[in-house]
Amino acid sequence: MPYDDAPSGDSPTEPTLDALAAAGFDLDSLSEEQHQVLRALAPEELALLVDIRGRLDAAAPEVQAHADVAGGALF
Question: Using an 8 Å Cβ cutoff, are 5 and 40 in contact?
């Protein structure tokens, strides 16, 4: 497993966790083990997660507008 070599620590100040937090991920609710998994992400994996989060956030207003207008009937 790639995250077995991840450094441990209590502070989410590493670049990977900072990038995820800046992208809007809520890291406070994650366990230390989950932080270790995130710390061990390859740069490509991090970029993919941040990209997906950005696309989800960009789509949120449209989805919310449909829910408000149609009561969610379209979804």
Answer: yes
